[in-house]
Write a structure and sequence with these properties.
The chain is an alpha+beta fold and about 160 residues long. The protein contains four helices and six strands, in the order H-H-E-H-E-H-E-E-E-E.
Length: about 160
């Protein structure tokens, strides 16, 4: 176990990797970042909302490219996870996270509401957490980000 409630294997599950027959092999630095993410960000969220499902954690570069992730994604370093919680919409979950003032949250992104997921990250080691809250949507086949959390669907 990396933390009281999160195991390393939860951060290494990938449907895309399974489809290609590849295994995710984190470096010791990535494991250290995943441990910080779990301890400093995910455990306090879990204490507030209950069990968390991680749909994406660590992504090596090949997997990040395969899923169309950002070239500077914090998933590459083990500092980010995409999560959801049974019984809460992504918007509700993001709002709970916003109210947790004492966690060293770098980003909370409400991804593709209303049916998407929540991306959370811890700051890189030694960096100051940004506590940035964003909402992402598709516009003209591109992902665009707006400041703040909004469950509205833009057309």
């Amino acid at each position: 176990m990396l933390t009281e409630n999160f195991s390393l294997s939860e951060f290494l599950i990938s449907q895309e990797a399974a489809r290609t027959g590849r295994v995710l092999e984190p470096t010791p630095e990535v494991v250290a970042n995943l441990t910080r993410l779990g301890t400093d960000v995910l455990e306090p969220i879990r204490a507030a909302v209950g069990p968390i499902h991680i749909s994406s954690g660590f992504r090596p570069e090949w997997l990040n490219d395969l899923v169309g992730g950002s070239k500077n994604s914090q998933h590459l370093t083990g500092c980010a996870a995409d999560i959801h919680v049974a019984g809460k919409t992504p918007y509700e979950l993001a709002c709970v996270i916003r109210n947790l003032k004492l966690i060293p949250l770098n980003q909370c992104i409400l991804e593709f509401p209303p049916n998407g997921w929540v991306h959370v990250s811890v700051a890189e080691l030694g960096a100051e957490p940004k506590r940035q809250f964003l909402t992402s949507r598709l516009k003209d086949h591109r992902t665009v980000y707006s400041t703040g959390l909004s469950e509205r669907v833009l057309v």
